[in-house]
Amino acid sequence: MKQIAWILALWMLCVSPSWAGQADDPPAPGGDVASPESTNPDKPAVVSDPAGGKTQAPAPSSLANTADDAYDLKLRGLEERVNELKEKIFRTKARILQLQETMLTGSIGAGARAIIVHRNEMGGAFKLINVQYALDTQPIFKKVDVDGDLDDIEEKEIFSGNIVPGNHNIAVKMVFQGQGFGFFSYVKGYKFKVTSSYTFTAEEGKILTLKTVAFERGGITAKLEERPAIRYDIKIEKLTSERAKALQVKGEEAN
Question: Do 187 and 180 form a contact (C-beta atoms < 8 A)?
């Protein structure tokens, strides 16, 4: 009987895979096991902050764009600064050239220049004892005769300089003393005061020479006391660099 039992047990072992099958591995809690997330270089990483929340770190491409924008902004600022400096240099050079022209020609740009000349054409019956000139209300020449030094001046330049283009006024006052003789002896010692004014126009790039001339009007038929008068002779010429230099030299010699 024992032999039959052993044979039966051996036969059961051969026909059955195992007395107790091995159990499958237990499933993960909660269902299927999640596979690891794939790495995406363009996807921003999620980082935890100390407070327990989650913040999204800037993507590499976003950081690159920000750096490029900052560089472009700085470059534009430098370009604007360079342009400002160029403009300042240009204005400075223009000012230097203008000053050089002023030193060489005695004028700023073309400008306008006026020359005022005093001339005395009165006869021997009148002695000039006092004269005053004013240009645009500003005195430019004043002289009182001392021992004939004023009356002996036939012609004298009393002003030469740059003036603003436009209208200007010259005012003149002359005092003559009668030197009557013969038929006109009655005027001896008399004083004749002559006042006059004249408006002239200074033109850009021109030299205006204004000659104020004291003369006797009316001829021999006019009364002696009515003869003293003043007229204005004008000459206008182009203000060239050569003419301006000549006037400057003349003015320096006169000073």
Answer: yes
Distance CA 178, CA 125 (A): 6
Helix (H) or strand (E) holding 138: strand 138-144
Overall size of the chain counted in residues: 255
Q: Mind listing the pLDDT tens digit for each residue in 169-222?
A: 999 999 998 886 655 666 677 888 999 999 999 999 999 999 999 999 987 777
Name residues whose C-beta falls within 8 Å of residue 191's C-beta, 6 or more positions apart in sequence. Answer: 129, 175, 176, 177, 178
Task: Identify which of 110, 115, 119, 131 has the alpha carbon closest to the alpha carbon of residue 193.
Answer: 131
Of 149, 153, 131, 148, the C-alpha closest to 140 is 131
pTM for this structure? 0.53
Strand partners, 143: 131
Q: Which CATH architecture has domain 112-254?
A: Sandwich (2.60)
Phi, psi values for residue 71, rounded to 5°: -65, -45
Q: Which residue has the tokens 């159990």?
A: 23
End-to-end CA distance of the chain: 163
Cα distances (Å, whole numbers) of residue 64 to 28, 59, 69, 183: 43, 9, 9, 112
CA distance 209 to 114: 6
Residue boundaries of the structural domains of the chain: 112-254
Q: Which of 83, 67, 107, 72 is nearest to 247 (CA)?
A: 107
Distance CA(156)–CA(137), nearest Å, equals: 20
